[in-house]
Write a sequence for this structure.
């Protein structure tokens, strides 16, 4: 009983810290596929995929919005880049060697056709054609999943625990099989859940089904393992990532990965988000790096910083990006850093932001001409 009380106190502390410092990429003021396994035309397959150095430190970017931006008529590199292949080549020229992209189960239920399996496949093919490594970020939702929102996909809303676990397997496998069918030869990382500070698949109406960790930690561990098993069945060498927000919050990470260890969840890598402000970026980096070292020692897992961001016009952005890259690269067990949606510029926002009444995302790293700022060029 004392152990249970201790665990619950730790949990509530972790959740309180999470609520006070949730990442800015998915809040209502700023943020953040269909399971149909349709085959792409052979012309879309990368005919000669360049070799990829899988041991190299990842200097990455999540560019999931790029297809919607291009469809809206946005161009990049001062108007020189107008298509997806050109965009991926431009990112490569900036020093990016890895691309991350999110996938939703059926975003059409939320009024958008982007970030479904077909959209993700197009971007993955283009990224591999440019010779970049891939991270596929499964949200296991029809919409944004983050510390405050882990909405069950509409089609899964009445599932039992066994059905939900099977749905995680089937969706994960079908998306990755679609990539493989399109000629994507490797996926370096598969992220099972996005910013899962308190688990995922929050079916709060049924405690026997929900993957909310504070209500049923064994379910969350089982859903993580289901995603792991499915990912390995398609890409055996892929590394499966469990991703939380607030990379500076050591208490949160110690609690969550302790829970996953207790319930024997299968995963390979710990993922982090880090979104500081001008006033605290230096302390955030110090805390984040210390957290990475501690997690490596305690759980024996490598860490990847799956998301970073800072206001594109901040006078501190250059220093933040340069410092986090330098520190992460020299920290044992850190596999890389990904900038979240750096390509956003000029007040652009996706259609679902307008529907939800959200403000435009302002933590990209491109200027008003659609060209990389000096902060992003620290990736070179």
């Amino acid at each position: 009983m004392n152990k249970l009380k201790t665990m619950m106190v730790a949990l509530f502390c972790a959740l309180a810290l999470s609520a006070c410092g949730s990442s800015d990429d998915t809040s209502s003021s700023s943020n953040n596929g269909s399971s149909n396994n349709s085959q792409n035309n052979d012309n879309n397959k990368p005919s000669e995929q360049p070799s990829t150095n899988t041991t190299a430190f990842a200097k990455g970017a999540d560019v999931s919005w790029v297809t919607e931006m291009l469809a809206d008529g946005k161009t990049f590199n001062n108007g020189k880049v107008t298509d997806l292949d050109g965009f991926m080549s431009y990112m490569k020229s900036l020093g990016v060697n890895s691309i991350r992209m999110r996938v939703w189960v059926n975003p059409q239920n939320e009024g958008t056709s982007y970030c479904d399996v077909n959209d993700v496949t197009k971007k993955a093919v283009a990224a591999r054609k440019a010779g970049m490594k891939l991270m596929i970020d499964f949200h296991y939702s029809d919409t944004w999943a983050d510390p405050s929102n882990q909405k069950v996909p509409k089609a899964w809303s009445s599932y039992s625990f066994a059905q939900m676990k099977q749905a995680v397997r089937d969706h994960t496998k079908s998306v990755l099989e679609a990539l493989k069918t399109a000629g994507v030869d490797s996926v370096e990382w598969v992220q099972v859940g996005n910013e899962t500070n308190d688990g995922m698949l929050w079916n709060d109406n049924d405690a026997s089904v929900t993957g909310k960790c504070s209500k049923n930690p064994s379910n969350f561990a089982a859903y993580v393992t289901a995603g792991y098993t499915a990912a390995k069945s398609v890409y055996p060498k892929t590394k499966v990532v469990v991703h939380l927000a607030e990379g500076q919050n050591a208490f949160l990470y110690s609690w969550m990965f302790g829970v996953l260890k207790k319930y024997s969840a299968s995963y390979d890598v710990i993922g982090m988000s880090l979104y500081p402000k001008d006033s605290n970026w230096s302390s955030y980096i110090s805390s984040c790096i210390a957290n990475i070292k501690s997690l490596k020692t305690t759980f024996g897992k490598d860490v990847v910083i799956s998301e970073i961001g800072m206001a594109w016009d901040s006078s501190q952005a250059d220093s933040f990006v340069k410092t986090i890259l330098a520190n992460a690269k020299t920290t044992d067990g850190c596999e890389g850093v990904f900038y979240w949606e750096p390509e956003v510029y000029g007040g652009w926002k996706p259609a679902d932001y307008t529907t939800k009444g959200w403000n435009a995302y302002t933590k990209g790293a491109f200027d008003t001409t659609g060209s990389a700022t000096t902060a992003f060029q620290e990736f070179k």
In short: Residues 1-52 have pLDDT under 50 and may be disordered. DSSP finds ten helices and eight strands in the chain. Residues 210 and 216 are 7 Å apart (CA to CA).
